[in-house]
Every structure is written in C-alpha cells, then in structure tokens.
Specification:
Layout lengths: L2 E8 L3 H13 L2 E8 L2 H10 L4 E4 L8 H11 L5 E5 L4 H10 L3 E4 L6 H56 L3 E6 L4 E4 L1 H7 L3 H4 L10 H17 L3 E9 L2 E13 L5 E10 L1 H23 L3 E9 L5 E9 L1 H7 L9 H4 L3 H4 L1 H13 L3 E7 L4 E8 L5 E8 L1 H46 L5 H29 L8 E4 H11 L1 H6 L3 E4 L4 E4 L1 H17 L7 E9 L2 E8 L30 H11 L4 E6 L3 E9 L5
Parallel strand pairs: 1-2, 1-3, 3-4, 4-5, 17-19
Antiparallel strand pairs: 6-7, 6-10, 8-9, 9-10, 11-12, 11-15, 13-14, 14-15, 16-18, 19-20, 20-22, 21-22
Amino acid sequence: MGTLLRVLIIEDSEDDVLLVVRELRRGGYDPVFERVDTAEAMSEALEKKTWDVIISDYVMPQFSSLEALRLLQKSGLDLPFIIVSGKIGEDTAVEAMKAGANDYIMKDNLARLVPAIEREMREAEVRREKKRADEKLRRAYDELEIRVQERTEELAKANEALQAIINNSTAVIYVKDTQGRYIMVNRRYENLLHIKSEQIKGKTDYDIFPKEMADAVRANDQKVLQARVPLEFDEVIQQDDGLHTYIAIKFPLYDPAGIPYAVCGISTDITERKRTEQALLESEQRYRSLFENMLHGFAYCKMLFDDRGRPVDFIYLNVNSAFERLTGLKNVVGKKVTEIIPGIKESYPELFEIYGRVALTGRPEKFEIDFKPLGIWLSISVYSTQREHFVAVFDNITERKLAEEELRRSNAELEQFAYIAAHDLQEPLRMISIFTQLLAKRYKGRLDKDADEFITYAVDGARHMQQMIEDLLKYSRIGTSGRQLEPSNLEDIFDQTVANLKAAIEENNAEVAHDPLPTVMADASQMVELFQNLIDNAIKFRREEPPQVHVSARREGNEWVLSVRDNGIGISPEFMGSLFQLFQREHVAKYPGTGVGLAICRRIVERHRGRIWAESEVGKGSTFYFTIPVRKFV
C-alpha cells in the first residue's frame, strides 16, 4: 500500500483526472483526491478538508488556474500548486509561475509529476518549519518584550516607592562620592538645611557647614571607606535653632566591580534623647546624693518564695548609708537576710509575711516592730516597684518608743493619782454637801438674808464640786476601764444616745438626725459617751430657735471621718485653742457644766487612735469632727 497523499485536483476532464491519479499510484502514493472545476467548489474544499498538494489544469470552461491561485493565496494556506496542462506556451507558464504556481507539467510528460510534487512538498515543509520557527521566535520576542516591560514597570514602581520612603523618612538620608561630593539628599535634608537636592549635587560639607564641623563629618566618611563596613557615629550639625546631635549610620556603596564609589548616610536627630539622657544623669546623681544622705534607712530587696508560694527569705539588692548607720549592718548587698541574721524568720514570721504580701500585691503597708536582734524599734514603710521585689524605708524610733512608754507610765500614774485624789475627795465632799444642805433646810429664813445667801452658795458649790469630781473620775477611767474594741454599729450607738437624751431633746424641741453610719472597731460604751457629750452640747449651747443636730460619716483613705453639726451659738475663735482641755468653759455663767466633757471626748477618740477637732462660726453653729481608723473585723 502506497503513501497517503491528499490531492485537490482542479480539472474539468474526468479522464485527465484518472491519468493524474494513475501516475501518482505508479509513483508509490495512495492518493485521496477530490475534483473541482469552479471557484465555489474549490473554496468549500479548502475550508472543509486538509490537502497536501493542489494539481490544476491551466484553463477550464468555468475556472482557471490563475483564479485558483488567487483563492489559495486568499485562504492563507501554504500548499504546493502544480499546473498540469495539455497545451501551454512558455509565456503563459512564466505568467503562472509569477502568479504563484510552483511548477507546470505537460500532460504528455506526467513522469515529472511525482518528482515535482515531492520537491514542492519538501520545500513547503521547509517553509512551514521556517514559519513555525519565525512564529516561535516572534512569540518569544513578544514575551520577552512583555517581561522587560513588566520588569521595567516594577523597577519604576520600586524606585518610586523607595524614593517616597526616602523622601518621607524622618531621618536625614544622603549619598556622597568618595571625594565627599553630594550625589543625592532626601527631602528631610532639604527642609532642615534649606537647600534643594539639585543645588547640593557636586558640593561638599565644606560648602555647607563650618570647617570644624565639616572636618569631623569628612573624617567619619573616610573611616567608612577604609573599613568597608557600616559604622555608627554621633555628629553635631548646625541648624537654624542651634546645634543638633545626630546618630549617623554610614555604609559604603559598591560598583559592579566591588569597589566603593560612594558613602550613604542615614542620620537621626537624637538631640532630645541626649537632653533626656543628660537630665536623667543629673536626676540620677541627685537621687544618688539624696539616697546616700537621706536620714531614713533604705533597702531594696528581692523576695524569695518556696514551691508553695510562701515567703522564705529575701536578698538585699541595694541599701543606703543610713541603713548601715541605723542597723549597724555592713556589706549586706547580695546576701540573704537569713545569712546576716540567723533565726530571723523563726523569730519574726510576720515580717516575712508583710514583705511577701507587698512584693506580690504591690499594695504598700506600714508597721512598727521591736527588732530585738538589733536592740531597736523600727517604723517601716514598705512598697513594691516590681513583682517579687520590695522597698523598705525605715527609721529608728527607739527613743520615741521609750518616750511613749515613759509617757504611758506617767499618764497611768497621773490617772491613778487623779482617780485616788477624786475618790478620796468624794467622802469629805459628801459630808460637806450633806451638812450644807441640812443647814439650808433647817436654818433658811431663821438667819439674816446674807446668811441664807452664803448657805445657798455653799450648797451650789458643793454640788458643782461633786459633779466635777465625778467627771474627773470618768476622765481618769477612760484609759483603764475601757472595754476591748469590737465591731460596733454606730447607728445602734446613735439610737442609744438619742434614747439617753430623750428628755433634753423633747424639752428643747430639738431635731436630731443622721446619715447612714458605718460599723467600726470601737468600745461601744465609750462611743455612746462620745456621741452623748457632743449632741448634748449641741442642744445645750442653743440659740432661740429649736436646735438642729445632724450626724454624718464619710470614708477618707484608711479612716472614717464623722461629724456632729449644730445650729447653735458657735464658739469664739480665741477659745478654739483650749477647747478640749480640762475645765475650760467659754460661757461659765450662762450655761451649766464642768468643762470636762470635751476633754473626755478627746481621750475617747485618742484611745481609738483617732483625731478630734472643731470648726465654728459665732452665731451660726459648730461642727465637731473626729476620726476612727478603718480596721479589719477579726
């Protein structure tokens, strides 16, 4: 079986077609062919089928080879076109060849047909291969051109972005060649030195800065070129508002041969940082001076905890000279307290609990401790600046404690003396009172007028003296006969006070009210006495209108501040200083009393570790304030 050959034959003669087919078979081909003899038929055949070669008669009744050539060229197909004709002149053949025919063969010389077809098919294949190569090359060129265009655009965008970054940077950026001539500067440089990039190109630092400044900058540039590595410098530059310090990162730029051709610098203004560092240094020096010269002891420590989170030891990280002076301990930094004072943890577990609590919670605490290993009393304030660390600031209060103890003993002796004196005076005073009253009862009106008046004075004096002695006994018993402090509801105490003063309240048509009152740790009986004295005074020292008394409370930090406000006669400014002293009275003749009540109030408040004071305006009323510490209820 021969080689397949797809042949489009343009011929009006069936016999001539058979001759061509026979010749092709003789040449070793198995032709698949189609005969057409019109332009329409040829166009349809070219469009719908694939052909290897076209064989055409030169002239036919309805068609010609020249028309067929034009149709083939119009289709864009590259197929061998061979004219086979019975009679064709040389001029006609040349014309056909010029029109695009590949060869022409006389019908009486068909032996040339197969070699001509094979030759033209080879040439057609060469043309197609060249066309494919050209197309491939064109596509490659187009792709390369696109990639080059894309890369160019990417580089342009990257360069634009880089330039935007450089120009919008807060740092000063510049490039100088190896001779120190500027190649470029960024916008920050332009704005600071008021010079455009185009104007500075080619200039050196000597054209811009004073010589001394330029020398320093140039020397740094040369160090970079010699070292061939990035280097960091502090450089001082003159600007409109004075000298500025910059931290400059400088590095070499290399050409393709690896030779440095420029120095790039990125400088950041650290003037404020330098000022801050200087201020910090000065502050640290002041702090160190204060730290070393402060009178209070100072210890900065790290707390150590066991696996269960319990404080077991602490290390001294820093102490001042006052620490050594007050404690007598030397060279403690870096050491554990259990190494310095053996047995301290067992003797003073509460010390470790307080320090550990402050180190973990950060809440400051203050306490006093009798530190027997050193033979001193200490007042210690503890706070934390960092978790698991604490600062202890302390003072030696041994002398104060000794003075307080001496004062306590003295007060106890005085209280005992006052109690004994008052108690011993009661019996003779009672006898005087009884007999003066008996004298008044038996002899009133039987003696002259002066005698009756003298007897009345004696009775009143004895009664007043007896009241003073009773009040003095109350005053002396406050510190010795008081009950243990316990949770006490001040609203209940207020109600008890009002009940005790019911007669005085009704008699004076007084209005006594209160805001919500807290529960505090107090001696309830003494609180009743305190409230009763203050409210009774508010009712007693009244103006013409009915008394109005108001009790209120507010919390301020670690204490309650309570107040008793009235609308009474007020207190003279000159009497305010002696208000809480024994036997001090402003209105002796007009209002009854012994002058002990407010002194008792002061003793009660002080026993509760509080303070008492008053504010007043004559004719408008008074407000008495006192404080009670906030304590945990145990």
